[in-house]
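ok new one. same drill as before - structure tokens go in, u give me an amino acid for every spot. 306 of them this time. try not to just spam alanines like last time pls lmao
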């Protein structure tokens, strides 16, 4: 028996060593960061990300720089919750046939869990779809807003200046373009938000021969957002360009990289936690034609009603 114990002792040591190694490797595998396309929330204690240089910020803001100020402000704040955008985009698409009071009631009844800044874009499925379809860009935008908000706003002004200098950006029947020192783009009707469609590769460079400058920015698509959407900041959201401030719901929006885990903006509405009630509305996604109309800036048509 003594000889058997002596014989087994090295085997037990080897087995224990293998178990420790397996445990160590398992912990190492579990600690691996998610792949970039998994869109995991940013860890609260993550170090400040490397700053984007001006040329990169110009690229990042170019797809949205010519949005009217209220819409642009909502997009910038929502982008900081980039991990919530894909699910919100699906919900908005499935409920696109609702509008005004009916849509606001559906958002409350479904107890959607997303931050109010993301909820604010639910009436505009095309914008959420654009953000969801390019998650890497949305994360870049959100990270830049959190870490470099003044630089992001300066980049917007640079791009607007280029588009105006080249003759593309001008007042229309849907929005007005101010003269400066800061270029503001404001809807003619504050309750009707248009979504401009334009090609960033076209409107921020000098026009080539044969280009019709006046038709480069199309504004056929828009949504009416009245009193029902005031709790989400519509009608009281703007920029303080000189102070590099974003004003949402008449309060300065101050979410930053440092406080992003704890910051709560004074909205009237909130995101709901815990289990959600069963879906109480028909889920009717937009048709391919409806999505294409929105992307191309054509007037909104709801095919499912015909």
């Amino acid at each position: 028996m003594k000889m058997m114990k002596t014989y087994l002792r090295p085997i037990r040591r080897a087995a224990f060593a293998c178990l420790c190694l397996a445990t160590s490797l398992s912990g190492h595998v579990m600690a691996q960061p998610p792949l970039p396309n998994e869109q995991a929330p940013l860890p609260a204690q993550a170090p400040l990300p490397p700053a984007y240089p001006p040329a990169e910020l110009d690229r990042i803001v170019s797809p949205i720089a010519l949005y009217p100020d209220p819409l642009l402000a909502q997009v910038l704040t929502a982008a900081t919750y980039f991990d919530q955008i894909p699910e919100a985009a699906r919900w908005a698409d499935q409920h696109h046939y609702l509008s005004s009071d009916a849509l606001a009631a559906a958002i409350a009844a479904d107890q959607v869990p997303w931050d109010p800044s993301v909820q604010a874009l639910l009436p505009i499925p095309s914008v959420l779809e654009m953000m969801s379809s390019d998650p890497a860009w949305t994360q870049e935008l959100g990270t830049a807003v959190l870490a470099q908000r003044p630089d992001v706003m300066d980049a917007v002004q640079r791009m607007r200046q280029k588009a105006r200098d080249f003759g593309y950006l001008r007042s229309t029947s849907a929005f007005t373009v101010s003269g400066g020192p800061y270029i503001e783009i404001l809807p003619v009707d504050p309750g009707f938000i248009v979504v401009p469609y334009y090609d960033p590769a076209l409107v921020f460079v000098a026009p080539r021969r044969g280009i019709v400058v006046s038709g480069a920015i199309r504004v056929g698509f828009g949504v009416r957002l009245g009193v029902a959407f005031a709790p989400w900041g519509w009608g009281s959201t703007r920029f303080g360009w000189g102070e590099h401030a974003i004003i949402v719901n008449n309060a300065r929006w101050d979410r930053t990289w440092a406080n992003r885990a704890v910051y709560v903006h004074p909205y009237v509405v909130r995101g709901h936690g815990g289990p959600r009630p069963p879906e109480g509305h028909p889920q009717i996604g937009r048709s391919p034609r409806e999505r294409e109309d929105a992307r191309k800036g054509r007037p909104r048509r709801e095919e499912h009603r015909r």
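The chain has one domain: 56-268+285-305. and btw The beta strands are 175-177, 185-187, 192-194, 222-224, 238-240, 245-248, 251-252.
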